[in-house]
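Data availability (excerpt). The following record was deposited with the supplementary files.
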Amino acid sequence: MTVSGPDPEDVAAYDALAQRRIGGPQPLSGPIEIREYDATWPAAYAGEAERIRGALGHRIVRLEHVGSTSVPGLAAKPVIDIALEVADTTDEAAYVPDLEAAGYVLRIREPEWFEHRLFRREEPAVNLHTFSARCVETDRMLRFRDRLRVNDSDRDLYLRTKRALAAREWKYTQQYADAKREVVEQILARGASTLR
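Predicted structure:
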């Protein structure tokens, strides 16, 4: 859920980004899969949260279920998205070895985007988005999640958008994610205006 990035249609820009991926580029091998809401997703998150707490303990600043699987009733890619904050993501020695020992693989390092680190786990499928403490992007993810949890029309708009974009052919998953940027910003703006 990035705020800015390449134009999703600019495949060359994504090819360049993919070259920086730890382990090399990983183009999609098939279409984006959107599944109907699965009532087991919250329990899957709870299990992963327990695993992460066991690995990091007091080093966790914040740990939250984010993304579409955190919104009851919302169809989603069957991947549990988790936002983790640690004191400082650039101090990788303080947390990366323990997360790797717990089964999470560091796949992406983005110093230019909030010093974000992305860890993957395959079973269950997890994206662990790791940021430094008090990161505004974590706050943004939570505002978006909370808006979708309480606003049926925004949740429906987001679902329609996701399904339309998932039906297109993309080389990289990030292109699909970035193509949702405009509707995400609209929903966040509406949520902010209701708080005033």
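Summary of structural features: The longest strand covers residues 80-86.
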